[in-house]
Structures are given as C-alpha cells and as structure tokens.
Amino acid sequence: MSEPNLELLPEGTVCTPQGFSAGAVHAAVRTDWDKLDVGLLSSEAPCIAAAVTTRNRVPGASLVISRQHLSSGRAQAVIANAGCANASTGKRGLEDAIRLAQAAGEKLAIDPHLVVVASTGVIGTYLPMERILPGIEKIALSAGGGMDLARAIMTTDTRPKHVAVRSAGWSIGGVVKGVGMIHPNMATMLCFITTDASVRQPFLQQALKAAVDDSFNMIDVDSDTSPDDIALVLANGLAGGEPIDEGHAESQAFAAGLKQVCVYLAKAMVADAEGATKTIEAQVGGAASDDDARRAARAIISSLGVKTAVYGKDPNWGRVLSAIGNSGAEVQEARVKLFIGTPNGGEICLFEGVPQKFDAAQAKGCLEPASVRFRIDLGLGDGAATAWGSDLTEDYVRLNSEYTT
C-alpha cells in the first residue's frame, strides 16, 4: 500500500530515523529461553510521545507505570522485556516496573520519568530483577540495534517484525511483537514507533489513534487480548522544520506514513500468527457507514467458523455471511454480494442475494494460497473497511495448551 512520496523500507527499524539507538541482551527472564529478552530504545533528544494502550480492565504493572510517565506527552527511552508480563503482580509488580525505569534512566543519564516500561509474556509471574538489572547494564546501544530490539520483545513470534518509511524530509520506523491473544481494540502486542519529524503532541496522538484504528484494531488471531498492550510513537524532531500539526503542509503525508507503518506491522503479525498457515483479508464496502463496515469486516476475520473453513480449504461461504449478520452492522440479505478472490487477482461471486452457481473446485482453489481474500458489498451506502485475520489450526491449540509448561 505505497503512498505518494513515501519510500517503503522493509528492512527499516526504529533506528532508521536519525537520533535513535537500540540494543538488547539475553537476561534469562525465562530460564527455559535462550534468546534476547531485554531491549532498550533511546533517543539522543527528548521526544514528543503518543500512545494507544489496551482496554483490558486489569492492566499490567509495567503499563500502569508507563501510562503515568506518558501523561506528560514526553518520553526519551523504552525498556522492554519478554518472557514475563509483570501483570497481576500487585505492589511488587509496580515497584519492579519503577526500578526498571530507574535502571534505564541511570544508564542513559536521563530522568526515569522519561522512560516507558513494557513487558510481555506469562501473566502472574514476577520479573526476575536479579537477572534483568545486571542485563540492562550490559546492553550496548547502537544505531544498528533496532533488529535486536525487535527480537528481544518476541515471545511465540517466529520472526522479528519491522519496517520504515521515508519522505523527503523525515522518516518513520517501527517494530512490533504479537502473534497470539490478538483481537481488535489492541491485542497482545508491543509496538514501538520512532520518527525524526517534528510533530506537535495533539496531532501525533490523533494521527496514531487513526492509524491504530485502521491497523492493529482491524486484526484478529484468536479473539483475545492482554493486559500489557501498547503502541507508542516517539518523535525527537531532529529532522528540523516547523512542528507538523493539523493544516501543516506535511500533515497528510505524515499521517499516511504512520498508517503505512502500522498496517505493514499489523499484517506481519497476522502472517506470523500462532500455528497459522494462511492470512484472511476481509474487504467490506457498500456499508451504511464506515463503522458498520468495520464491524462486518472484523466479525468475518474473528469468526472461528471462517477461520477453520479457510484452514480446511472449505469454500463454506455461509459462515462469512453468518458472521456479517452477527456483526451488529446493518444488513439486508437481498442486497449482499459476496466474492472470494482468485489466485490470479480475479474473484468469484458466491452469493448475490441468493446462492450463486460456481465451480466448487475453483472456489476451493481460492483457499490454497497463503493469503485468502473475501470481498463483500452490503449495497447500503459508501462505508468501507478492511480487516486481516489468520486461520485456526491444531498447532494453535498445541502452542497455547503448552505455553507455560
């Protein structure tokens, strides 16, 4: 989804924008893991900050502290760990999160209140501070450390997820983790985005919220979320120029670049979903409103019936139609058109008010590729939205039934 005057950099990371450095260590947060698990991101200058976080009513301790630190709209660093969510850990969890911020602040010689703390992993376990704090001291920061940070926040992810975009005057880079407990309205994910653009905080928050609504809030793996989720943007302004705000000549390009980064990372999460073999794209148009289109699209990619049908290569289009009917969107069955995408970019009409005749073998072939697309026209208006999901497999059950054992 390239945007005018924006260059997509698939190998880019949070260190692509100028002035950012990162690094990571293996601190044995989980003693059964032998991988990078504590990462640090730093800007050489204080940043304007914006964040969107979980709606879970039992937020993790690290997120509670980060929300307090971000209330000023400023930050300069992120300390993150994988393997322990530091959630449902009471007073000790809050104290540990504060100590993480203090340790990172001391290492970077900055105010610890400018440090965002992020944790992901098993809920109900305590951070092994006796291993993490010495680990933080050993982290070597560099302008090439963005990939290590992307790896350090992985849990059941099989590969790091990262990207950047560049305009003529500034760049935006991001990393994300999350392949399970993924559902709209934030999921089990940590997303850190950086930019060297100069941006005013209210506009940055507005642009991030819009980007998240069209990306991380439009994906599903298993209809579940977690206590620690955050999408964070740090803007250090080192590219110079007048701060971007609503009405600024660069405002639309910046918002488009931020959305492009978020959508790219969101789709990467779905493509790496726990146990998944396919991604599912649901394009809904002709809805009575954009909100209705979002409801319908998210219902399709969240449906267990749709997910298992796609996994089994079963062109059971009734499950898609049923999901739409259960979505809460306005639907008039006689007006609905339902199509499935073909491997060559075409499509087959499966339903148009009534069942359509189609070649079952050809429709089954549409479910063979790694990416499956459904297009729905509700025939009621101009509302449109796209959502992305994964199929549901036996491997998902195995991974989640054995996660802590």
Nutshell version of this structure?
With 405 residues, the chain is α+β, with helices and mostly antiparallel strands.
Report on this model:
There is one protein chain. The chain has 405 residues and is of the alpha+beta class. It has two domains: 7-269, 4-Layer Sandwich (L-amino peptidase D-ALA esterase/amidase); 279-401, Ubiquitin-like (UB roll), CATH 3.10.20. Helix content is 31%, strand content 26%. The chain is built from eleven helices and 15 strands. The strands form two sheets. Strands 1, 2, 3, 4, 5, 6, 7, 8 and 10 form a nine-stranded mixed β-sheet that branches. Strands 9-15-11-14-12-13 form a six-stranded mixed β-sheet. The protein is globular.
Features:
alpha+beta, L-amino peptidase D-ALA esterase/amidase, Ubiquitin-like (UB roll), 2 domains, nine-stranded mixed beta sheet, 26% strand
The CATH class of the largest domain turns out to be Alpha Beta
What's the total helix number?
Answer: 11
**Shape assignment:** globular
Total tally of structural domains: 2
Distance between the termini: 40 Å
Q: How many strands in all?
A: 15
CATH superfamily placement of the largest domain? L-amino peptidase D-ALA esterase/amidase
* CATH architecture classification name of the largest domain: 4-Layer Sandwich
- Tell me, rounded to a whole number, the average pLDDT: 95
String of helices and strands? EEEHEHEHHEEEHEEHEHHHEEHEEH
Q: Main beta sheet: strand number and arrangement?
A: 9 strands, mixed
**CATH fold category name of the largest domain:** L-amino peptidase D-ALA esterase/amidase
Helix content: 25-40%
Task: Outline the low-pLDDT stretches.
Answer: none
**Radius of gyration over all CA atoms, rounded:** 22 Å
